[in-house]
Amino acid sequence: EEHLFNRPISTVMVRDPVVFTVRGMRLDQIECLLARSEIKTFPIVDSHTDRHIQGCINRAELHYAIRKAKQLHGIQENAHCYFESLGVTPVALTSSNSASSSTNPSYSSPSSIDFGAWVNYTPFTVDPRLPTETVLEMFKKLGPRIILIEHHGQLRGIVTRKDVLRALHQPTFVSKQDYFGPEDEQGLAVSEPTAPEPDMEMGTVTRRRP
């Protein structure tokens, strides 16, 4: 792991990942993204212009929720989807005798569905300047599937254990100029200040609160 020493996680993270927005998406759009992407966990943000992190959702659980909603409640392909709690009473997708029919998507009509019950509102997040070896230790000790890279609450990228291990086995570094392009080494736009602010604790792990 020597060649990862002090290498910021921004050099390893996946930039511009597929995301879901809290509101404004249709079911057919979500299914299209699921078909086109192999990502296991999807970040949820306010909008495509305001990428403030709201949580994340697991691919397998989302697939299951969609399938059951179609089978039992006739959810339409153009149904409006929400990834937040709208105060709608959850509708059981399995029989009352099921041993584990815990979290199920709510819905107000066949034209809308709320996946809020499936959202993880406290994902692991780190600053883009955190050393990669520190993030690797997080994966080893805490076992998250994915870690979101954020700056002031805004999503900058995502990283998985596989991404870090792949970087571990890279024989050489890529140059900063070739790798970063129009962004700096923290994964921030060049027009943004890159110096740490007094209240930022770059060495800490953040577990977002709802």
UniProtKB/TrEMBL annotation:
Pfam families: CBS (PF00571). GO terms for molecular function: voltage-gated chloride channel activity. CDD domains: CBS_pair_voltage-gated_CLC_euk_bac. SMART domains: CBS. Residues 179-210 are annotated as: Disordered. It comes from the Eukaryota. The keyword Calcium does not apply. GO terms for cellular component: early endosome; Golgi apparatus; plasma membrane. InterPro entries: CBS_dom (IPR000644), CBS_dom_sf (IPR046342). PROSITE patterns: CBS. Residues 119-174 form the CBS domain. Keywords: CBS domain, Ion transport, Transport. This is Glycerol ethanol, ferric requiring protein. It comes from Dimargaris verticillata. The lineage of its organism: Eukaryota, Fungi, Fungi incertae sedis, Zoopagomycota, Kickxellomycotina. The gene is GEF1_3.
